């Protein structure tokens, strides 16, 4: 499973990109996107997905 960014809620602040230990987050178009092939949900690096922890707009959640 991977994390996902809701484009409607993303403010493009960039907080998530710098926190991602897997380098799975990149800016594309007007919002940030998470590459599901690279996303590990921070397993082995943190207790919880760091992108979700730092997102000020609550735009990040587990992908369905």
From TrEMBL:
<dbReference type="InterPro" id="IPR017900">
    <property type="entry name" value="4Fe4S_Fe_S_CS"/>
</dbReference>
<keyword id="KW-0411">Iron-sulfur</keyword>
<dbReference type="InterPro" id="IPR017896">
    <property type="entry name" value="4Fe4S_Fe-S-bd"/>
</dbReference>
<dbReference type="GO" id="GO:0051539">
    <property type="term" value="F:4 iron, 4 sulfur cluster binding"/>
</dbReference>
<keyword id="KW-0408">Iron</keyword>
<keyword id="KW-0813">Transport</keyword>
<protein>
    <submittedName>
        <fullName>Ferredoxin</fullName>
    </submittedName>
</protein>
<keyword id="KW-0249">Electron transport</keyword>
<feature type="domain" description="4Fe-4S ferredoxin-type">
    <location>
        <begin position="32"/>
        <end position="64"/>
    </location>
</feature>
<dbReference type="GO" id="GO:0046872">
    <property type="term" value="F:metal ion binding"/>
</dbReference>
<feature type="domain" description="4Fe-4S ferredoxin-type">
    <location>
        <begin position="1"/>
        <end position="30"/>
    </location>
</feature>
<keyword id="KW-0479">Metal-binding</keyword>
<keyword id="KW-0004">4Fe-4S</keyword>
<dbReference type="Pfam" id="PF00037">
    <property type="entry name" value="Fer4"/>
</dbReference>
């Amino acid at each position: 499973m991977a994390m996902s960014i809701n484009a409607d809620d993303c403010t493009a602040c960039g907080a998530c990109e710098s926190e991602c230990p897997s380098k799975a987050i990149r800016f594309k178009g007007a919002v940030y996107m998470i590459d599901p092939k690279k996303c590990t949900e921070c397993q082995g690096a943190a207790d919880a997905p760091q992108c979700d922890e730092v997102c000020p707009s609550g735009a990040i959640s587990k992908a369905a």
